[in-house]
């Protein structure tokens, strides 16, 4: 348990630190956030992507008198459900009705307290570095009284503003290699992304889920970050990683995805059972994280470019699949289970790969009954037609803006 005076001292110190900090780059998400009137606003994303900075910007703006508490402060280690009563006393004494709770997911049962404060008419803004904060399970625990948003590392437009540069091919390549983690872009120190990678594996996964075989978890994460854009199967990969049970591998996959470190894209199928048994394509949350932590030293930028295109697309859609029949199409973006965008990704179209890329795209278009799809390239424009179907090749930075 934590003493009420300790909670008060920590909250005061944290608020003072926020006052002394620069507000940082204004995030695109800042102006899209819904108002937390009768629902809790939940902002979720990977560690160090800027959630606390976004909170800080909100506190400097519309919520200057709000209460703020970051639950990952070492002085609050051991905070549990019983301590919420002492926190509640502080809030009632202060009379504040708007509360910012950062990384609250470290406290088991936090949803009960948030629901209580909502019932009391308070406004709640909550952040966390675990994707379960966006899950359907959370919706049931809060009985639907929450609005969720995802925060990623810097987008392409945010990267340009951070660098204070106009868009160009050279800047786009810089973005592809460096990614969007703010602290890394400020320092250029690879150790920032090495440490972030380890912190997620140890603090967000191993400690939280009681994993003792940390070395196997680290081997798996290193393999995945070195093989982005490739198919992975828990059953086939377990012996290579040194794990005996497929179920353990599946749990590790789930933990890695819940921590926002990786995304596992299924093969498109109208059957959920078939989706679950087919291999998935793996992508990382950030291309800079891939460049720094991958053990695959290669001049082939294709996988890195494909990962970057996935991230552009993932910001638009939560549901993405790959398509494979006779050929393969990289991405099918779905809305309510229906295809919204169909696209191939090819760093550079050449005589050697053009037929393969077109065949996969046209096959997917025929399957879904669509007329037009795109091939996302680094810097090529082109247009191809076949049997009434159209494939438009377009540079990535132009297509996604």
TrEMBL record:
InterPro entries given in the database record: AAA_14, DUF4143, P-loop_NTPase
Lineage top rank: taxon: Bacteria
Source organism of the structure: Cyclonatronum proteinivorum
Lineage, top ranks: Bacteria, Pseudomonadati, Balneolota, Balneolia, Balneolales
A Pfam family reported for this protein in Swiss-Prot or TrEMBL: AAA_14
Domain AAA: from-to ranges: 38-160
Name of the protein in question: AAA+ ATPase domain-containing protein
All residue ranges annotated as the DUF4143 domain in the record: 203-338
């Amino acid at each position: 348990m934590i003493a009420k005076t300790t909670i008060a001292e920590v909250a005061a110190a944290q608020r003072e630190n926020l006052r002394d900090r620069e507000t940082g780059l204004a995030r695109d998400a800042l102006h899209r956030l819904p108002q937390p009137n009768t629902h809790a606003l939940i902002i979720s994303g990977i560690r160090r992507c800027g959630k606390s900075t976004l909170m800080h910007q909100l506190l400097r703006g519309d919520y200057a008198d709000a209460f703020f508490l970051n639950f990952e402060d070492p002085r609050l280690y051991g905070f549990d459900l019983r301590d919420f009563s002492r926190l509640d006393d502080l809030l009632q004494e202060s009379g504040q009705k708007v509360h910012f709770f950062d990384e609250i997911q470290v406290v088991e049962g936090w949803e009960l307290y948030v629901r209580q404060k909502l019932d009391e008419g308070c406004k709640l803004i909550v952040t966390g570095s675990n994707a379960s904060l966006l899950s359907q399970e959370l919706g049931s625990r809060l009985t639907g009284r929450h609005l969720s948003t995802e925060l990623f590392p810097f987008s392409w437009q945010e990267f340009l503003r951070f660098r204070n540069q106009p868009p160009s091919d050279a800047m786009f390549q810089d973005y592809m290699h460096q990614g969007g983690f703010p602290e890394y872009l400020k320092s250029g120190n690879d150790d920032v992304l090495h440490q972030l990678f380890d912190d997620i594996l140890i603090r967000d996964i191993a400690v939280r889920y009681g994993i003792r075989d940390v070395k196997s978890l680290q081997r798996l994460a290193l393999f995945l970050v070195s093989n982005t854009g490739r198919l992975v199967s828990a059953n086939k990969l377990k012996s290579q990683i040194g794990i005996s049970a497929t179920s353990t591998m599946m749990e590790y996959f789930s933990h890695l995805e819940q921590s926002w470190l990786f995304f596992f894209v299924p093969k498109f199928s109208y059957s959920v059972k078939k989706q679950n048994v087919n291999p998935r394509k793996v992508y990382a949350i950030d291309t800079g994280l891939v460049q720094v932590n991958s053990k695959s030293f290669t001049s082939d930028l294709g996988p890195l470019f494909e990962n970057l295109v996935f991230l552009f697309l993932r910001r638009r859609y939560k549901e993405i699949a790959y398509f494979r029949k006779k050929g393969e199409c990289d991405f099918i973006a779905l809305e309510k289970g229906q295809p919204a965008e169909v696209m191939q990704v090819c760093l550079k179209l050449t005589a050697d790969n053009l037929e393969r890329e077109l065949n996969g795209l046209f096959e997917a278009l025929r399957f879904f009954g669509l007329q037009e799809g795109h091939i996302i390239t680094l810097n090529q424009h082109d247009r191809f037609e076949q049997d009434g179907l159209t494939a438009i090749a377009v540079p990535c930075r132009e297509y996604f803006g």
